[in-house]
Each structure stands twice: as C-alpha cells, then as structure tokens.
Amino acid sequence: VEAMNVRLAAEGQPPLLQEELVGGRLYTGPMYEKYNTVLRSASGNAYLVGKNKSLCQGNTYVTTIHAINSCVLKLSKLMDVCAIWRGMTRGQLPDGFWTPNRHGTCGGVEYGFSSTTAERAQALHYAQGVASTVFEMRQGMIDRGADFSWLSQYPFEREILYPPLLGIEATGSRVDKTTLVIDARLSLNMMSETLDEVLTKRFRLLKGLCDNIKLEIERALGGALWKVLFGGTGVDVPTLKEVVRKRAHEQLNEAYAGEPHLFNNDAKLQSVIEASLTIGEDVQWVRSIVLLDAAQVMEQ
C-alpha cells in the first residue's frame, strides 16, 4: 500500500484510503456478485431486478460500492496501457449492441463493475461453455482500468477493473474456433468521483463561490468613479481601493479556512455562505454610493 501511495503522490494523486482498500479487496472475492447485482438491477431488467431481490435481500451496499469505485479511479492513474480481455458464456448480446443507432454508434453500457484481464488465457477460461464470447480491447490514454492483481484474492487472474457505466462499442468481430471474439472500444464514465471528491464537494462549492465574489469585488473597485467622488478630498484613492480589496479578500479566505469536511455540516455551510455573500454585497454597496455621488457631482 505504501508503495502504491508513493506512486500516486508522484502522479499528483491523493493516497488510497483504508475504506478503498477494504472495498477493493472485498470485490475480488465472492461479494463481487452482490455488488454487481445491485448495480445491474438499475437497468430495470426483470430478471436482474428479481435476482437482486433474492440475492441481496434489500441491501444496497452503497458505501462499499462507492469505496470500490473510488479505489478503481485512483489506481487507474497508475495503469500502463495494454491489451485486455473479458470472457463470458451463456449470454446473448442485445440487438442494439450490433445495430447502429441514429447517431451511427453501436454497443452498450455495463451498469456494474467490469472485470477484465491482461491474461488472454484467463478470459478464455471464463468463456468456456455455451455461447463462448471474448471481448478484446485496448486501453487508451484516458480509458484505463485499475490493476487489481496486487490487491486481489486471486492475483493470478491479473484483473484489470473498470468502474460502473463503462461504454463498450463494438468495432469488429471474428470467430476463433468455437469462440466469438469481439473487438471493442471503451469509454470511461467521466462523471465518477473519488471519496475524497465527494467528501469535499461542499468545500469546493464554497471556494468557487468565494472566487466569484472576488471577481465581483474587482469589478466594483474598477474604473475611475472612485476618483471622481474622492478627488479633491485628499483621499489616496488607489490606497483606499487596496485597503478595501485586501480586507474583503482576507474575510473571504477566512470563510473557507479549515478542514474541508467541516463544511459538510449544514449549519456551518449556511452561515459561511451568508457571511461570504454579505462581504460581496458590502463592497457593491460602497460602489453604489460611489456611483450615486459621482452622478450628483456630474449634474452639478
């Protein structure tokens, strides 16, 4: 784990959390079926909905699934691009996988996690039986999976795991003996977030708000209107503007100071947002006074 975190740090990525490690390890064992059953039942397929009801008994494993997904997203940043395979049997791909839609694309979306392997023989092993099918894919610069072999309960499988909602587009097919081999292109779900990103979402929202208020403050301090109002009064206008700017920025920076998780408290977040908006409104109010007085000066 320490070695992986060193590599992640070198890539500018956050370290793996204990929850992510536990989730990832659990997925590589028999629990994977329950996690994927929950996810796949979201498709609305009657068989999958029924299987979810009987197998999972109402459990949704939300936290665990998020932890596994986060683990995959982080480890994918370390993945070296290579060819990967996925074997399956006793299944039939829907017509939409082969027939182009009105946009000229064909394929499908995997609702669950997608287990692939860097070992072709492993994919062929899982494809033994009726309706033997093997997907042959190559990862891209962005569409990379996560090497789970070091974390897996079955490291010899050389598992490369992908997060839910993976797009799989067929680019060609051929028959190898009794196995249908499908050449496919992958499209990663770019909306997925790590646990770190989910837990700091409110903090990032607040920081974005404060950054926007700073831009509004710069607009309020711009122009020559302040000089029109204070000209002849002996007030150093540039210094006055800088004092207003500095104080407002200090207050806004103080607003989101502290650990990001603190802002997951509703009361804390509400009070900080209200205080931040007030700071911006105060500067806008000063600008309004400047505009009003400047207009009066010009009338005279």
UniProtKB/TrEMBL annotation:
Domain of life, per lineage: Eukaryota
Protein's name according to its UniProt entry: Uncharacterized protein
Organism: Eutreptiella gymnastica
